Amino acid sequence: MQINRAIFLDRDGTINEEVGYIEQLDRLVIIPAAFEAIRLINLSGFKAIVVTNQAGIAKGLFDETFVKQTNDHLQESLKQKGAAIDAFYFCPHHPTEGAPPYRQVCDCRKPAPGLFHQAARDMAIDLTGSFMIGDRYRDMEAAHRAGVKGVLVKTGYGADVLENIGPDQETPEGKPDHIAENILKAVHWILENRT
Ligand SMILES: [Mg+2]
Ligand SMILES: [Zn+2]
């Protein structure tokens, strides 16, 4: 039985500032609104689950161990302010760069929905009652392919995405269900609009 609901969170540009590839821990700077946003998710009964593309692994910029260390560091920083992520999922692949096995067309690199399906299996998540918050259309596309509703934030690439692609040029699957200033506003909207 899929008994849990989740708010899936993109990592870079949504929880922490978008600074390009994070290959050193000190490049991880949490967006201030994220602390309260994740605390609210924790109180709401939704699981807080990070789903992140980390193609820097395929490109040889860092390894899986480093991504896990970065996630641990993020978790520690959140916990110091009373917030916690329930689970982290990442895609280490890239379709054309690096060497196998990381160079592959996988089912988990967003906009593919594989990370959502992994989480749903592991944590008994009801995807149709769940939401995704991210800063790129591919976050929205991945969510929709998994049956999850999507909120696009204007942090990270979000503002550029909206300005340069525009709401008319997005793919139908990438169209956000809502657009919010940041992760905190996105969580507020979700908690007001959950069914
Ligand atoms: Mg992002
Ligand atoms: Zn993958």
Protein described:
The structure is a single chain. The chain is α/β, with parallel strands linked by helices and 195 residues long. The protein has a single domain, classed as 3-Layer(aba) Sandwich (Rossmann fold). 33% of the residues lie in helices and 14% in strands. The chain is built from 6 helices and 6 strands, in the order E-H-E-H-E-H-E-H-E-H-E-H. The chain has helices at residues 33-44, 64-79, 114-123, 137-145, 158-164, 183-193; strands at 6-9, 47-53, 87-91, 131-134, 149-153, 178-180. Strands 3-2-1-4-5-6 form a 6-stranded parallel β-sheet, sandwiched between helices. Strand 2, helix 2 and strand 3 form a beta-alpha-beta unit. The longest helix is centred in the middle third of the chain and has 16 residues, at 64-79. It is globular and about 45 Å long. The mean pLDDT is 95. Bound molecules: magnesium ion and zinc ion. Zinc ion is lined by residues 91, 93, 106, 108-109.
What is the first-to-last residue Cα distance? 19 Å
Low-confidence spans: pLDDT under 50, at least 5 residues?
A: none
**Per CATH, what is the topology?**
Rossmann fold
Bound molecules: magnesium ion, zinc ion
SSE ordering? EHEHEHEHEHEH
CATH superfamily: HAD superfamily/HAD-like
- Looking at the overall shape, the CATH architecture is 3-Layer(aba) Sandwich
Which strands sit side by side, in order, in the main sheet? 3-2-1-4-5-6
Number of domains: 1
Mean pLDDT: 95
| Percent range of helical residues | 25-40%
What is the number of helical segments per DSSP (H or I, 4+ residues)?
A: 6
